[in-house]
Design brief:
This protein is of the alpha/beta class. 21% of the residues lie in helices and 34% in strands. The chain is built from three helices and ten strands. Helix 1 crosses helix 2 (57-66). The protein binds inosinic acid.
């Protein structure tokens, strides 16, 4: 990264330049609204939020604090991405230790791209006979969809371009950005940032 990559209109991460897409203020307002919607539906049911690591940890942490009522949180680690493209194969690197039977589950995903990860995970979840499954994705790329997966709540639908920030990384960097930054399409690439 360059000396102060987080100031100015764009950022450089490794070899790529990203431009701002969603401000921190817009992110926070949307997460608050999602938290309120989930509160309206689950505040009396002690839901179990399941955050898919690594990307969803930032979103999940804000989302549970926007949720008013008893709730629990668990984590699973699934992995399908290398660099800016999906590898196609999903790995469960770390599993859940909680009993899911008869629980109201809220699956928290950072971004639904092809939908492969969520599709794989929902298949696994259903085998544990939960009372209900609700899915929340902070971002979704409708044009990239290859698997039909139910997403009950979406923060933002975005175009099919690679993004970083708010938990999402490019080769390990960018997760701590409070807003979302996008890789411009080739024709929109800025000459310099
Ligand atoms: P899917 O299985 O293709 O839907 O991809 C899901 C996972 O890939 C997400 O949970 C992210 O971790 C990662 N991913 C997909 N798109 C992006 C992106 O634009 N930036 C960073 N990570 C991404």
């Amino acid at each position: 990264m360059q000396a102060d990559p987080y100031s100015g209109p764009g950022i450089q991460i490794h070899d790529l330049k990203f431009v701002p897409l969603i401000t921190e203020e817009a992110v926070q307002a949307r997460v608050k609204a999602l938290g309120e919607a989930l509160t309206g539906r689950f505040s009396q049911q002690n839901p179990l939020f399941i955050s898919i690591l690594s990307g969803a940890f930032v979103f999940a942490s804000d989302l549970i604090r926007a949720f008013k009522g008893d709730c629990e949180i668990g984590f699973v680690k699934l992995s399908s991405y290398r660099g800016t493209a999906s590898t196609g194969a999903i790995q469960t690197v770390m599993g859940l230790e909680k009993d899911l039977k008869d629980r109201h589950i809220i699956v928290v995903e950072d971004i639904v791209d092809t939908g492969r990860t969520l599709h794989y995970f929902l298949d696994q979840l259903e085998q544990h006979a939960p009372a209900s499954i609700c899915t929340v994705a902070f971002l979704r790329k409708p044009e990239a969809a290859q698997f039909s997966v139910p997403v009950d709540y979406v923060g933002f639908d975005i175009e099919d371009q690679f993004v970083v920030g708010y938990g999402l990384d490019y080769e390990g960097l960018g997760r701590n950005l409070p807003g979302i930054y996008q890789l411009p399409k080739t024709e929109d690439q800025p000459a310099s940032i």
